[in-house]
Amino acid sequence: MRRMIMYGKDGRWYTTHHRSVGKKLETYRFLVRFIGETGYSPTVREIADEMRVSTSTALSYLRDLENAGLIRREADKPRTIRIAETTSYGI
């Protein structure tokens, strides 16, 4: 499988599998839609269920989105995901 390179807001380069880039983008779109519709962020379980992945995989997607500067969140607190003000970072 080919690897893709993502450039994070922190200035570091990240590599990831091509397939997982699509899932991360899908996760980001879900977050934008969910927060827009409800006014609060989904839980990790809700993200995992929507993406049809495990909670640990959902957490890794969130970490990658955060590293790319697309979201902000407070670790170990539920429903604290915020969409970051971005230009064209990351995925």
From TrEMBL:
It comes from the Bacteria. CDD domains: HTH_ARSR. Residues 27-80 form the LexA repressor DNA-binding domain. It holds the Pfam family LexA_DNA_bind. One of its GO terms (biological process) is proteolysis. GO terms for molecular function: serine-type endopeptidase activity. InterPro entries: ArsR-like_HTH, LexA_DNA-bd_dom, WH-like_DNA-bd_sf, WH_DNA-bd_sf. This is MarR family transcriptional regulator. It comes from Porcincola intestinalis. The lineage of its organism: Bacteria, Bacillati, Bacillota, Clostridia, Lachnospirales.
